[in-house]
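INFO worker-7 received task bundle
INFO bundle size: 2
INFO processing item 0
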Amino acid sequence: MQIEIKIDDSCKETKVIVVTDKITDEINALVKKLAEDTTQFLAGFQGDTLKILDQQEILRIYTANGKVFAVTDCGEYQLRLRLYELEERLDRISFVRISNSEIINLKKVKKFDLNYTGTICVFLTNGTVTYVSRRYVSKIKQVLGI
């Protein structure tokens, strides 16, 4: 992708033009990102305490017993959104779904182990080990470029 910026003193309002041969998921994500007015915050609960979670702090988001949890280095927080709603709010470059019940932050991955037949083992920076489900292996390989 090429990026070009032109400085024009007569310009009163910023204008973005996308020139492409076809509409792709990357183009759609770029347009959506540019159209967002504010950063999407996530509200995490620990008992009666609410904390605004910074997306860069989140290691993983998973479901257990019908509830959704976000794990950070500071602890685990319950979220009141569904995983599909979180997928729309989270940064698509950093976060990827690895199973029907889990989303991980790629920037918090220590390493991937491809030795397991039919799946991928993921080691996170906090020591957590999780697995990519078989259904999502091809998607992860595409994201990683392998």
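INFO item 0 finished
INFO processing item 1
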Amino acid sequence: MKKVMMMLAFFAAVSTVNAQKFSKLGKSPTDIAHYPTNAAKRAFAKTAEQKKALEPKIRVIYARPYKKGREVFGTLLEFGKAWRVGADESTEILFMTDVMVGKTKVKAGRYSVIIIPTKDSWTLKINSENDGWGNYSYDASKDVASITVPTQKSSKEIEQLSVVLYEKSTNVVHLKIGWDTTVAEFPIMLK
């Protein structure tokens, strides 16, 4: 009887494990941009000074849609309408220190990123609403900072949405976003 009970328990456990299915892979892979770029690899730094220099200050998590031959800005993404900066869930930015975005002080914390594209410029909105899907949870009354910058044309087509954070000058990190043939860079001042 004991063997029968043990076998039943084993089969119950196996069937429970198999009942939980993994989600299908998304069409737009998720990526992460850090400042400093190698912040996630700071454990491999040789000295305490190098580790300190690699302490993370900003992190962006976003999904990377493909262009797939589509006209992106002005067609797929309408000018003047909020865009989640990617696909799937809202793009997230984490400031590990207080920063200045435009003329607004933004406290360290986790925020969502929204872009309002126009033909010649993009407006970046840092928003306190998190964990949304697309723009469906975007509430402009929760914007904590905003900055508008001119766009630039890329000499090469950028097939997949790309984000990078880099130090343009002392304590000024640029959030650079590019897709199709459009690029915009938003300055963020570290405090």
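INFO item 1 finished
INFO post-check item 1: Residues 127 and 142 are 5 Å apart (CA to CA).
INFO post-check item 1: The longest strand covers residues 172-190.
INFO worker-7 idle
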